[in-house]
Specification:
alpha+beta; three-stranded antiparallel β-sheet; 11 helices; about 10% strand
């Protein structure tokens, strides 16, 4: 059973105490970013506890930025899709191609969409109302070709939750380190194909050509040729929560990070410099990677047990790998980040076995990350393809299924309102699994769906820095 967050409790969250011991409220006028502002020197000084740093990250995540903070773009340019030069519909918002929100929390407002009413929670999902539309210049709103589809030439992005991101980032960084080591191995053995297998995931092979002093990357699959695992973003675009946040702040809010445009630079010409400090990105990174991980409930229910077995037997688990095992429980956060070397420029280290985010130790001395993904790109066929004109239109990184029961609607563009719809929509590399699901008996399909319904969002998001909102 769920405990619902009352309106009174929601108000108390907004007015809760900051890391500096003062109530946080939205000013009637002037900048909204909490002060004193957090610098990178503050983050690395040791003067703040992890709880205080997480709290400051939460405040940045939930701050309703305004024009004094630098929210929005400057004068519009010739291309409305370019952040910093976008026009608006009314002087404030654009909605298509960004400038679609005032705070990160707007697109991540619900802990569960499986309750009536939906359960509010920090860093959750939101649903179709907050769908992002990047790269769009055309909508066939009149359905001129009479196919009952208003074609969009950009992307539709269904906002995900952030829970368990620390484990995902650690797994991705360790996979990158292993793949980089395999690249070195290939260089030491010219003309010999080296299999690119890390944590049980096969990314093909790579061969070093001694005569040209270059690598043959034609055998690399499901990843960029630089052999960097990028676990965040629908296409596998971002190596870390930090990298994702830099782009999201600029696209959705018009808030430009110092590390993107430079210190003392008004990158978008809106009259505000230093819109997001390096230290403010760092506390957002710390906050995002210390959120509680999703959980499984009713794991010993016979229907759940049978459904999990069917999930594997029909082929779902070949891409939605139930868990990845790390070699260490320690997640290193870096600035500036080096894609090919996660160990460079580390400024903070988080133990993922702490109460939050609460990952379990494994036999190798690392943690188990039960994410149900291989963190690899797959071709999902023309039925799910986007229409940007990119060669990656039909490719998507395997979605993480932990917490799936609470996150309807489903798929990258929220077209599926139920899990059954999401499964049967699989094409391309997922077609066989979808066909095998269709061949199951009705009772077996129900068990598989019951298993997926056992994968829930965490009971206490932002544990220790925010009020708990529900129990399973």
């Amino acid at each position: 059973m769920y405990r619902y967050l009352s309106l009174m409790a929601a108000a108390s969250v907004v007015l809760s105490v900051s890391a500096y011991g003062q109530p946080v409220g939205v000013p009637l006028d002037g900048p909204a970013i909490p002060t004193p502002r957090m610098t990178q020197a503050d983050v690395t000084s040791g003067a703040f506890t992890l709880k205080q740093l997480r709290r400051r990250g939460l405040e940045m995540f939930t701050t309703p930025f305004n024009q004094y903070d630098g929210r929005g773009d400057g004068p519009s340019g010739p291309n409305s899709t370019i952040p910093g030069q976008r026009p608006t519909t009314n002087g404030t918002w654009l909605r298509v191609n960004g400038l679609d929100s005032q705070t990160c929390q707007e697109c991540h407002a619900f802990l569960s969409m499986a309750t009536i009413p939906p359960t509010l929670g920090i860093a959750g999902v939101t649903g179709i109302a907050s769908t992002a539309f990047p790269g769009v210049t055309q909508f066939d709103l009149e359905d001129l070709d009479a196919n009952q589809i208003a074609e969009v030439n950009g992307r539709l992005i269904n906002p995900p939750f952030l829970y368990g991101a620390g484990g995902v980032e650690l797994a991705g960084k360790e996979m990158t380190q292993e793949l980089q080591a395999l690249m070195v191995q290939a260089q030491a053995n010219p003309s010999t194909p080296v299999p690119l297998i890390t944590k049980g995931v096969n990314f093909g092979s790579i061969t070093y050509n001694d005569s040209t002093d270059d690598f043959d990357r034609s055998g690399v699959v499901g990843i960029e040729g630089d052999l960097v695992v990028r676990p965040f973003g629908r296409k596998g675009e971002f190596i870390s929560v930090r990298a994702f946040d830099v782009g999201a702040l600029q696209f959705h809010l018009g808030m430009q990070a110092q590390e993107l445009v430079g210190v003392g630079v008004d990158g978008d010409g809106d009259g505000v410099m230093n819109e997001v400090l390096v230290g403010e990105l760092s506390v957002m990174h710390i906050f995002g990677t210390t959120l509680e991980r999703p959980v499984q409930v009713g794991w010993n229910d016979p229907a759940v047990v049978n459904g999990a077995a069917l999930f594997s037997s029909v082929g779902c688990a070949s891409c939605h790998i139930p868990q990845l095992e790390t070699q260490s429980p320690l997640l290193d956060l870096a600035y500036p980040e080096v894609d090919t070397d996660p160990s460079a420029n580390v400024y903070y280290t988080i133990d993922l076995t702490d109460r939050t985010p609460g990952f379990d130790l494994n036999g190798a001395g690392g943690v188990t990350v039960p994410l149900y993904s291989d963190l690899k790109r797959h071709d999902m066929g023309p039925g799910l393809a986007e229409t940007t004109g990119s060669q990656l239109d039909s490719f998507f990184i395997t979605p993480r299924l932990w917490g799936i029961a609470d996150t309807a609607p489903y798929l990258h563009d929220a077209r599926a309102l139920t899990l059954r719809e999401a499964i049967v929509a699989h094409g391309g590399e997922g077609q066989d699994a979808a066909d095998n699901f269709d061949l199951l008996l009705a009772t077996e399909q129900d068990d598989l769906l019951t298993f997926l319904n056992s994968l829930r969002t965490p009971m206490y998001p932002a544990k220790g820095i925010d009020q708990p909102v529900r129990n399973h």
